[in-house]
Amino acid sequence: MNVLVTGGTGYIGSHTCIQLIQQGYSPVVVDNLCNSKKVVLDRIEQVSGVRPIFIQGDIRDDAFLKSVFDEYTIDSVIHFAGLKAVGESVEKPLKYYDNNVSGTLRLVQTMEAANVKSLIFSSSATVYGDPASVPIKENFPTSATNPYGRSKLMVEECLRDFQHANPDWSITLLRYFNPVGAHTSGLLGEDPRGTPNNLLPFVAQVAVGRRQKLGIFGNDYPTPDGTGVRDYIHVVDLADGHLAALEKMAHQPGTHIFNLGTGQGKSVLDMVYAFERVAERPIPYEFKPRRAGDVAECYADPTYAEAILGWKAKRGLNSMVEDTWRWQSNNPDGYGD
Ligand code: NAD
Ligand code: UFG
Hints:
Layout: E1 2-6, H1 11-22, E2 26-31, H2 39-48, E3 53-56, H3 62-71, E4 76-79, H4 86-91, H5 93-114, E5 118-124, H6 147-165, E6 170-176, E7 178-180, H7 199-207, E8 214-217, E9 229-230, E10 232-234, H8 235-249, E11 254-260, E12 266-267, H9 268-279, E13 285-288, E14 297-298, H10 303-309, H11 317-330
Parallel strand pairs: 1-2, 1-4, 2-3, 4-5, 5-6, 6-11, 7-10, 8-13, 9-14
Antiparallel strand pairs: 9-12
Helix pairs in contact: 1-2, 1-8, 3-5, 5-6, 7-9, 7-11, 9-11
Bound molecules: nicotinamide-adenine-dinucleotide and uridine-5'-diphosphate-4-deoxy-4-fluoro-alpha-D-galactose (UFG).
């Protein structure tokens, strides 16, 4: 069964391709390579034994997208393609609305024309804004604190309206918490361009000697050790969540919303200490002021996903950190040039 995977050479998309192949699906990858590299396809093949079909192009290019649906019989779409740098989205909001919102609308229009009615969308816990309490359930109020988050919220709302008007469609909105980790093979992982915005890639680059020191944004939050608390989830667990959504929801009409998290909150210092243990070296750090827009605590109540999808995150903090370290130490410069 062909599954169109937009953004399939990216961090989460590439891990999902491997799980898809291992479950007998045929991923058809579309990516414009604006934030990923072609060598990822070699790595997917090395791990899974199958090279996914790859068509380089932009989801905002209607003619291109139509040609993909004309050439391949697509059963469902998993839509990862998007931009994700919160800071950049504040500087260049239109770039984010164009890519994330307009790109998704074009994809859905092309799907409609091709009579493909099953979509899984990469949403984010960012749609909960600053939650009134934790753990966060799917029915909590939503809001946005930056253009990236607003682009996710807008897409969620557009898709909900669209599904309401087209009740035979199945649309699944997966709200990821904090994806981390890498494939256990050490062949695939996260390869951010420039200075990493996210905690674990930054810590990994300090450990491998690419950066001198981690800045911890705030040690005066109302949390057990004063640093921010998040729900870090192993990227392979996240990929498995997509498989579960595909199997259980892809042919169930409706708009379905799931949190994909572990339900466990970990602080910045928890992550730093775990990395020091696994990499057997100190991670120098200094406390810095809070980062604008950060919340004190954000973690999921993942029980709905377990009840409906039969999916639960299995990999703990040690696997997340060990796999990140294997990837980073085997590939100090990521996928290279
Ligand atoms: P990523 O940047 O590694 O992957 C996204 C891929 O999409 C890249 O390969 C990029 O080249 C491609 N792409 C971007 N715009 C495109 C376009 N217009 N046409 C074709 N390809 C395009 O990011 P990721 O971490 O794998 O994230 C995947 C999705 O999950 C994104 O939509 C992101 O917003 C969402 N998400 C990520 C996180 C996270 O922390 N990583 C958290 C919540 C949600
Ligand atoms: N942090 C640091 N130093 C750093 C980077 C991060 O102290 O150099 C701290 C942050 O202040 C926060 C925690 O580490 O307390 C996690 O920060 P990340 O940037 O890794 O993750 P966020 O929770 O801020 O954001 C992530 C994704 C967003 C997504 C959001 C909710 O980057 O795209 O989760 O899903 F919207």
